[in-house]
Amino acid sequence: GKNEKAITVYQRLLRESPLRKSNSDTHSKLVALYHLVNKVPMVVKELEKMRKIYLPGGNWYNAHKSNPDRVNAAEKEVEKKLHFYGAKYNNSGIKFKNEAMLKFASAVYGVYLSAFPKHKNAYEIRFNLANIYFDLKRYEAASDNYLLVSKSKVKKPKYHKEAALQAVVAMNKVVSATKYQNEPKPGSLTN
C-alpha cells in the first residue's frame, strides 16, 4: 500500500543523494515506516546504517562536519531513534515474552552503546541490555554488562546494587552450566 510506496521513495532519495542535508530526517522517516509495516529486521538494519553514516567517520558526517549544528542535529536524531526503538522492542519482548523482540532490542542497544558509550542514557541502556542477555540465557554477556553497570560512575547509581547481585547470579549460572573434566580419585596421582 501507501507505506510500501513511501518506503521505496525514501530509499530512492537516500540512494540518489546520499549527502543531502536532510538525509538524517529522511532516514528516520524510513525507519519509522519499516516499524509501521512491522519489518523489524529492516528497522535494526537501517538504525545500524544511520550510526555508520551520520556519526563521526561516516560519509554524510564527513561531508557536513563544517556545519556543527547540522551534525549535532543528526547525532541527536540517531541517539533518539536508537534509544526509542531499543526500548520499544525491549518492552515488547518483555510484555509478550517474545525472544525475537528481545534479540532485536539487544542488537539496537548494542549499536547504541557502541555509538554512545558515555551518553547519560548509556547506564540504563546497559542495564536493560544485561537483563535481556539474562532472559536470553546468555549469562556470560549478562554478567559482563551487569558488572559494567555496577562499576559505572554516574550521579544517581540507581542500578548499582541490583547489577552487582545480578552479575553474581549470572556468573553462577555460567559456572553451574560448565562441564568440568572429572577430577582424579584421591591417591590416583603419583609424583
Written account of the structure:
With 191 residues, the protein is mostly helical. Helix content is 73%, strand content 0%. The chain contains nine helices and no strands. The model has no long low-confidence stretch (mean pLDDT 95).
Summarize the structure.
By secondary structure, the chain is mainly alpha-helical. Helices cover 73% and strands 0% of the residues.
Structural class: mainly alpha
Instruction: Give the uncertain stretches in residue-range form.
Output: none
> What is the overall number of helices?
9
What is the count of β-strands? 0
Specify Rg, calculated over alpha carbons.
Answer: 21 Å
Q: Percent of residues in helical segments?
A: over 70%
Query: Average pLDDT value?
Result: 95
The outline comes out as elongated
Order of helices and strands: HHHHHHHHH
Amino- and carboxy-terminal Cα gap = 79 Å
* Major sheet summary line: none
Topology:
Layout: H1 2-16, H2 23-36, H3 40-54, H4 59-64, H5 68-95, H6 99-115, H7 122-135, H8 139-151, H9 160-177
Helix pairs in contact: 1-2, 2-3, 3-5, 3-6, 5-6, 6-7, 7-8, 8-9
